[in-house]
Amino acid sequence: MNFKELLIKAINASIKGGYAIMDVYKSDFEVENKEDNSPLTLADKNSNEVIENVLVNTNIPILSEEGAKITYKKRKEWKYLWLVDPLDGTKEFVKRNGEFTVNIALIYDENPIMGVIYVPVKEELYFAMEGLGSYKIKINSIISDLDNLIIAAEKLPIDYKRENYVIVGSRSHMSKETEIFFEQRQKKYENVEVMAIGSSLKLCMVAEGKADAYPRYAPTMEWDTGAGHAIVKYAGFSVTQYNSSENIKYNKEDLLNPWFLVQ
Fold it and tell me: What domain range includes position 235?
């Protein structure tokens, strides 16, 4: 299996998904509600179709938010799988604040070994792979040469020479436990700043070095975190379960994540 070729495909799929999202973003789009009352737009559907059209040729099964009704009996036989969120942060998309992403991860034996996150509005790409590390670059075109992309990209984390301790949280989700975490860190560190941002950008901020911790003591699904987990992991950080040193696992029978802490 040529993992560099797979990473190129994942990067290009995310960028093409971003194109599809921006076509809708610039239009007068409508919003539907899914069964759980979360929003769904044409951008979610179009991005998912574009991404699956790119990844289908890899002959690796795809588990996407938009096609998540595959039985565990079938999924548990998968050694490798693509984990895809074609539009992470639909609420942010609807608000038109730009804080949404395309997430693609390659999972092997319950663990993320590759991750790609594309931010369509900012044209920023985060990518990571086992043995390669994590990177960030501004890009809006399809790539063919991974080595040149790596040379042009910034390796994560970036040393921003910060003196403050930054906790990043969600604009849309705040639990009592998260508030307690904030209070505990404020007692431990002198200069604590809390930043709110949408989608998987929270994981990217820790990987990049802009934030020190992201406590997520509220529900998420596997496709929300797989790509960001890889980017965090190969930048030298961790995504562990609430009050535990155990890592988050993927392709479980229940696709709901446990609560977790990124740091």
Answer: 165-262
